[in-house]
């Protein structure tokens, strides 16, 4: 769960995280022995016999020392509790076990980032962490600090767990701003060339995709496929794609919940992903798709045409008209009241007439201006685009919630757009390059770390 960042960098090209994490592979020779390929420096045998020891080194509990800094089992438990609380469904025990391992890896990375920032005299102060925590409580959760503290305790987590994550993100941002961003250069020629190509492509389709990338090699391929299928099963049962991407994806886009941003299919640079995405509709999930280095799970978040106005960007003025049913009402009584409500709503003469007519039948009204069509539930979006001012949606609800409709009181249609500006294009290219270097930076920190598992 990403809780705060001053500036989020995004890696917009799918699957490239594999280049930093995939292992060297072996090929089998004529005699059945492992022969080193051009990219294999290990010369591993096909048949591996493990040496049995009294204490199995592969059985690692979720505690560790990272260059002397301790990660406790409680740290892992509190972070897992945060993730589980964000899920709408129960997660099977085996999935929780995998989640704990991934959380431990994330905590190790955060510890390395904080240590590196401190070593380079870029420490994050407690005041900065507390200020960010307060902003997160108010802006993201709509709570006071005390209320957020109480909520975290109630779900089995703690403010310390969230603050630890905030500290890691702020430390990493400090490192990227000083050690990487100043050395990333984008020429005006590159930007101008891309902008001109975008202008030529006005009217073509652009996609907003989410990706979860899992690295694989021939030795662990079957296990990775099984893990990917389990993730897909959980997502289709209502799990949060953003939460799973942040915890399990090995692409750098994991930090933003797997969101690749708005891209054209050619930017995926993987024929398998391009072919799959071209057939997807918003909200659709596909995978696992095998690509070089591993497997990808794709979510189609949205689709639009480059440089063309999207009707779903229209801003609506809406009036909600609703009637609630008292506790203990019979089904027959509810049906009668519902029918009376629907008849009354259909006879209303626009929004100016609605408040008085609603009050006469015991209904309530709520006004809301400036709502983008795309912010509404998908089932309502198409209906709202077909309504004229003063018309209402079909009634929706049930005996528990009551019945309600939305009346369209006004609509501001989107204007034409020329697409992203030159400055926005330059920023996107810079972010992509920063993310590539950030992956290498973190890989080097892991490689040089001294990690002891209890």
From TrEMBL:
It holds the Pfam family Rotamase. The keyword Signal applies. Residues 204-302 form the PpiC domain. GO terms for molecular function: peptidyl-prolyl cis-trans isomerase activity. Residues 1-27 form the signal peptide. SUPFAM superfamilies: FKBP-like, Triger factor/SurA peptide-binding domain-like. Keywords: Chaperone, Isomerase, Periplasm, Rotamase, Signal. The keyword Chaperone applies. PANTHER family: CHAPERONE SURA (PTHR47637). This is Parvulin-like PPIase. It comes from Aurantiacibacter atlanticus.
């Amino acid at each position: 769960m990403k809780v705060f960042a001053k500036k989020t960098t995004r890696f917009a090209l799918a699957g490239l995280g594999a280049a930093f994490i995939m292992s060297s592979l072996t090929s089998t020779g004529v005699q059945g022995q492992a022969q080193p390929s051009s990219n294999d420096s290990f010369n591993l045998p096909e048949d591996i016999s493990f040496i049995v020891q009294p204490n199995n080194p592969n059985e690692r509990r979720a505690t560790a020392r990272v260059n002397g800094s301790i990660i406790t089992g409680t740290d892992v438990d509190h972070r897992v509790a945060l993730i589980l609380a964000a899920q709408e469904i129960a997660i099977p025990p085996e999935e929780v076990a995998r989640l704990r391992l991934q959380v431990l890896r994330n905590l190790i990375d955060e510890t390395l980032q904080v240590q590196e920032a401190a070593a380079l005299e870029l420490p994050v102060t407690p005041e900065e962490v507390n200020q960010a925590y307060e902003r997160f409580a108010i802006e993201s959760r709509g709570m006071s600090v005390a209320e957020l503290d109480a909520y975290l305790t109630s779900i089995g987590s703690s403010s310390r767990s969230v603050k630890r994550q905030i500290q890691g993100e702020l430390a990493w941002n400090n490192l990227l701003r000083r050690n990487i961003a100043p050395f990333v250069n984008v020429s005006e020629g590159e930007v101008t060339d891309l902008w001109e190509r975008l202008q030529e492509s006005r009217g073509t389709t652009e996609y907003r995709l989410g990706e979860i990338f899992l690295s694989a090699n021939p030795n662990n391929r079957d296990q990775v496929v099984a893990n990917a299928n389990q993730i897909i099963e959980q997502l289709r049962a209502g799990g949060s794609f953003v939460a799973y991407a942040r915890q399990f994806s090995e692409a750098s886009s994991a930090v933003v919940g797997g969101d690749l941003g708005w891209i054209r299919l050619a930017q995926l640079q993987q024929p398998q992903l391009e072919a799959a995405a071209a057939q997807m509709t918003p909200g659709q999930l596909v995978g696992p798709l095998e690509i070089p280095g591993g497997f990808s799970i794709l979510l189609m978040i949205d689709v639009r045409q480059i440089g063309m106005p999207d009707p779903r960007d229209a801003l609506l003025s809406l009036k909600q008209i609703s009637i609630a049913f008292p506790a203990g009402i019979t089904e027959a009584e509810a049906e009668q009241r519902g029918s009376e409500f629907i008849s009354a709503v259909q006879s209303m003469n626009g929004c100016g007439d609605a408040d008085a007519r609603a009050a006469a039948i015991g209904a309530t009204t709520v006004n809301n201006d400036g709502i983008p069509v795309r912010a509404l539930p998908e089932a309502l979006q198409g209906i709202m685009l077909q309504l004229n001012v003063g018309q209402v949606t079909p009634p929706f609800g049930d005996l528990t919630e009551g019945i309600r409709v939305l009346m369209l009181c006004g609509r501001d249609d989107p204007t034409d757009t020329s697409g992203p500006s030159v400055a926005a294009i330059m920023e996107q290219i810079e972010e992509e390059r920063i993310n590539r270097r950030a992956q290498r930076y973190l890989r080097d920190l892991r490689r040089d770390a001294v990690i002891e598992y209890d």
